[in-house]
């Protein structure tokens, strides 16, 4: 039987499959590692993020050096080196991007991470010049100001997107947390601000408390397939309602995970935790599992699946809303919890 066609389109990019390597430093900081990921079947790679704090720190340091001795005698005016020779952090990222773009044949997506509007977004223009195939704008913050309203937070997010959109003509995807009062309305406003796609969702890495040392420490927990439920639901709710490509991230470990997310309406699935656990070769396994499922269910292409179980196209659209909650509560059996696997 003919092997299924796994190709998909995301942000205007033609990809060999929906299997994209998501942004994670251990996966993308080394060019040789990126080449191994490509060889294993990555359809595209998202580089690790360049953070707003890194850019602003570099800008402040550059300013400090440039004004040092500014009130000295005229003979000292030629003392300062040309700005082009200053080594700043985001220059290293841009060189890495250029190298990745020159050595990989798959699309390379740059990642820019910030929380506040500002001049740092101008680096997006340099990412485009460095050869990025697209840009993923990761807007990550934990609002703690009790006087900052939800409307103000949403407007701040939209301002960042509009500022980046003004800097580049690259395809632009926005990666967000799910914590909005009405995410559907926010998606509509993001599209109007210039976003071409959404990456759902950003996972907050919650700190933990060391009860012996009395310290707050990071505690990284890799995602599992259970984490897919939230992005699956919102992708299904959003698919077909806005001119946005939807990417799922957080918990893709099996070929059937990819199938479910495509059915919900995802254009691609980003893979991170499975690769951190099992290495680049897991991509080949995911591709084989996806191909085998399509063969067994007589699908010629992966594109046939996209959105077939979205809210607009599934047999019962109410299943994505309150009725699903009510049915889940009514049909739950305590014996199911007792038999479930877990740390308890």
From TrEMBL:
Keyword Flavoprotein: yes
Gene3D superfamilies, per database record: Aldolase class I
Cofactor(s) needed for function: FMN
Residue span(s) of domain Dihydroorotate dehydrogenase catalytic: 89-293
Tagged with keyword Oxidoreductase: yes
Pathway the protein contributes to: Pyrimidine metabolism; UMP biosynthesis via de novo pathway
Protein name per the record: Dihydroorotate dehydrogenase-like protein
Pfam families: DHO_dh
Keyword terms, alphabetized: Flavoprotein, FMN, Oxidoreductase, Pyrimidine biosynthesis
Protein's organism: Cyanobium gracile UHCC 0281
